[in-house]
Amino acid sequence: MTGLVAYPASAADPVNAEVVADGWFPPIQLTTVREIPRLGDGAVPTPRLIAAIEGGMLHAFRELSSWRSERAGAGLTGLAQTTALTLNGRNMAVALWERVVIYFAAAELQGQYRDIAATDDGLDRAAEKVLTADDSRRIALAAVADLRSIGAAVPVPRNRVDLI
């Protein structure tokens, strides 16, 4: 016997809902994270999305800790002060910060929402989603390198390789 199971639609995010960082880095809007990497068309509940954004911020904090400490030690009180460069009317450092968090959060969610099926097609779709999570992680790490390059005498390379 086969059946169709319907799940209730997720509740909409509160208007202008955001995850607040530490004050030095700006907050991230939930709608931005939902729309840019097109996460699940509402299938991701708000609490899970918030947890993924927090995870993305924690990962970003670790990646950017020494870079941020240098800037804060130089007297900068926020990310937007690191550069006067703009992109599409927005501060470039803030745009890169959003990109870092969005794609780290997307990678976490894409890794969690695999298709689980007993068929070969289902397994192939799950493998494609793992590649998507890896692609999101790659985009986030490239944005980290771009952000760390702001104000650096030598740009930070985007490719990082650890030899075993």
Compact description:
The chain has helices spanning 30-35, 46-73, 92-112, 120-149; strands at 18-19, 28-29, 86-87, 90-91.
Keywords, separated by commas or semicolons:
single chain, two-stranded antiparallel sheet, two-stranded antiparallel ribbon, 164 residues, globular, mainly alpha, 5% strand
Q: Topology of this protein?
A:
Layout: E1 18-19, E2 28-29, H1 30-35, H2 46-73, E3 86-87, E4 90-91, H3 92-112, H4 120-149
Antiparallel strand pairs: 1-2, 3-4
Helix pairs in contact: 2-3, 3-4
The string of secondary-structure elements, in order, is: EEHHEEHH
Residue share in β-strands: under 5%
Q: Sheet bearing the most strands, described?
A: 2 strands, antiparallel
| Tally of contiguous helical segments | 4
Q: What general outline do the C-alpha atoms trace? A: globular
> What is the count of distinct domains?
1
Strand order of the largest sheet: 1-2
Number of strands: 4
